[in-house]
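So, does this match?
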Amino acid sequence: MKKVSATIIVTLLLAGCGGEEFQDLRNFVKDSGADMRGKVPPPPEISPYEPFSYDNSSAIPDPFKPHKADIKFANRSGQNQPNLDRSREELEEFPLESLKMVGYLQQADIGYAVIRSSDGKLHRIKAGNYVGMNFGKVISVSDSEIKIKEMVQDSAGDWSERESSLQLVE
């Protein structure tokens, strides 16, 4: 009987201590949101879309039409412009990067370069011929390289020279 009553007392003591272990934490969580009432502001009113029409009388320039930044440079678009009316040569159909120098010939003191185009055909050119898509004029031909002067147009419409070369591929 003593053992049974000691077991009951120990069980009651343990049961009394076990239930209140995190009660203060539970009360804090339960009471922490009691005073908080959130207020969400109403969404802003959306105004209807009003299109803007750009016209010549407007002080704001149309962003979708090209324009020159300064009027005094307006006549420069033709400066250094290549001859656009001349007849095109066969190698002007190909980008310069797709052409390869594969040989060199010399006849009557004139140096000729042998060029392979991207379609596999061989072409013979000399100084004065045109190659590439950027109005590239052959300046000189040597046994190891072709020097080319290209004409490229910038965003303002001006033309500038750019030097390129093709090296002999072995």
